[in-house]
TrEMBL record:
InterPro entries, A to Z: JAB_dom_prok, ThiF_NAD_FAD-bd, Ubiquitin-activating_enz
MF-aspect GO terms: metal ion binding; metallopeptidase activity; ubiquitin-like modifier activating enzyme activity
The THIF-type NAD/FAD binding fold domain, residue ranges: 184-314
GO terms, biological process: proteolysis
The entry's keywords: Hydrolase, Metal-binding, Metalloprotease, Protease, Zinc
Name of the protein described by the UniProt record: JAB domain-containing protein similar to deubiquitination enzymes
One Pfam assignment: Prok-JAB
Lineage: Bacteria, Pseudomonadati, Pseudomonadota, Alphaproteobacteria, Sphingomonadales
Domain JAB: 18-123
Gene3D superfamilies: NAD(P)-binding Rossmann-like Domain
Length: 467
């Protein structure tokens, strides 16, 4: 069963919180999370702001108890009220208890009502253990608490901390890569595949076969005869009927996983409905050939604190006496963690290239400009035989997710923010997260605040782009 409530943290936030909550003195410490929301059906909280409570401001700091200073509760209310942010009071459990104690319950009975007196319909509390695991609960205005089903953290590693007894009884022993324990956890998670064509169909097939409980498929395009050689789970009948790619693929998944796993979204990713569908997921796989679509995926990942895996392939050519020859066959896999270097920071796209792509699409004035739009750069090929290259790249992309969520590498994952491989040179290169300059991200942890993703074109109808 996929979770109904989720609290999402970025890795950079989690590191800051862990350093503050465990100063080394063996006593509890406190912080306050200010969280934006995501539209349903799944209720997701996105940590937008973090307020660290100075250790000296807490009148009482012991191994198993802490007193919340009223001034910082008031500051949290002042920061969150204008946007109706949900306030979550977080403190550490230096002894490692991954549960709420009776002392925690008594503390909440004192502090939580003061939050509701100020504003809001839902606020909460959370605890963190020395290994970084987080457990949270939410209170309604009647002060009845309910556990948050899942707390996620997308950093160099991707962590999932569950709030139910089946998964939280032993938080220090997580699922192991490539085993049934991994499959059992994936069954509770939601993957989103943006683009269900060459690499995307392979990515979606892997997600479904690995056992993701939900797989949202986002693509507006229809099956054609020319792409049957590289889109999995499509047939001649699909091309003849010009079926939507997402519908054809969803039916194929239903045949071996049953109904309700595949969720087709026959929209462009730059539509409001598609963005909101993607925001429901736990992990994004971007498998598109458009810079604009990659830009939107970048924004979604940042706004909703989702891990993003972007895959691309290209076959450059060179001129020879009698025509063209293949110069290389190249694949790229980027892992983008919220708060880290975006695809834009990594020059996968730029304002100039986005503008050029738009002009090429809106007014294709020259044949030479159109040559850059396909797999094989510099040659027109209607049905490129690229499924082997796509398989290689898509497999590396999904394996990168597994390595982050269920670490098995001999080296830290931070060294693998980008992987580039060359089939011609039989070479593979890796790039560290720190090797990319990072600009300020204005949509970081924005959640669903209007206009969506900060783009007027995605504003809720009749809002005029305001909240």
């Amino acid at each position: 069963m996929t979770p109904g409530t989720t609290l999402s943290l970025a890795g950079v936030q989690h590191c800051m919180l862990h350093d503050h909550l465990f100063p080394g003195d063996g006593r509890e410490a406190a912080a306050i999370l200010l969280c934006a929301t995501t539209p349903g059906p799944r209720f997701k909280l996105v940590v937008q702001d973090v307020l660290l409570v100075p250790h000296a401001e807490c009148a009482r700091r012991e191994r198993d108890a802490i007193t919340w200073p009223g001034a910082y509760l008031e500051e949290a209310i002042d920061r969150g009220e204008s946007e109706a942010l949900t306030i979550v009071l977080l403190h550490s459990h230096p002894g490692g208890l991954f549960a709420f104690s009776e002392i925690d319950d008594a503390s909440d009975r004192v502090t939580i009502p003061s939050l509701f007196q100020a504003y809001g319909e839902q606020h909460g509390s959370a605890i963190m253990t020395p290994d970084g695991a987080v457990r949270a609960r939410l209170y309604a205005s009647d002060l009845v608490a309910a556990p948050v089903d899942l707390v996620t953290c997308a950093g160099d590693d991707i962590a999932f901390w569950w709030g139910d007894a089946a998964f939280c009884a032993a938080p220090f022993v997580g699922p192991v890569a490539f085993t049934g324990t991994m499959t059992a956890e994936l069954d509770r998670l939601h993957a989103v595949v943006i683009g269900v064509s060459g690499t995307g169909s392979i990515q979606a097939e892997q997600a479904a076969r690995l056992g993701f409980g939900r797989v949202t498929l986002i693509d507006f395009d229809r099956v054609e005869h020319k792409n049957l050689n590289r889109i999995l789970n499509t047939a001649t009948g699909d091309a003849q009927a010009a079926r939507l790619k997402v519908d054809a693929f969803a039916d194929a998944i239903a045949a071996y996983r049953g109904p309700g796993v595949a969720l087709p979204c026959a929209e462009s990713i730059n539509s409001r409905d598609a963005v909101l569908a993607a925001a429901q997921g736990d992990v994004l796989f971007c498998c598109v050939d458009s810079l604009e679509a990659r830009h939107i995926a970048d924004l979604i990942a940042a706004a909703f604190l989702l891990p993003l895996f972007d895959v691309g392939v290209v076959i450059p050519v060179r001129k020879i006496l009698n025509g063209l020859a293949i110069a290389d066959a190249v694949g790229r896999i980027d892992y983008v963690q919220p708060g880290g270097a975006t695809l834009g920071d990594r020059q996968v796209y730029s304002p100039e290239s986005l503008r050029a792509e738009y002009l090429r699409r809106a007014a294709p004035a020259a044949h030479t400009q159109e040559l850059d739009a396909g797999y094989i750069k510099g040659a027109v090929e209607e049905a490129p035989a690229v499924i082997t290259l796509n398989m290689r790249a898509a497999s590396a992309c999904m394996t990168e997710f597994i390595a982050r969520a269920y670490p098995f590498r001999l080296e830290p994952n931070r060294g693998y923010a980008r992987t580039m491989f060359s089939l011609a040179a039989c070479d593979e290169d890796h790039f560290r997260e720190d090797s990319f300059a990072r600009a300020r991200n204005p949509v970081f942890a924005r959640g669903a605040r209007e206009p969506l993703l900060g783009l007027p074109a995605l504003a809720k109808p009749n809002t005029g782009g305001t909240r």
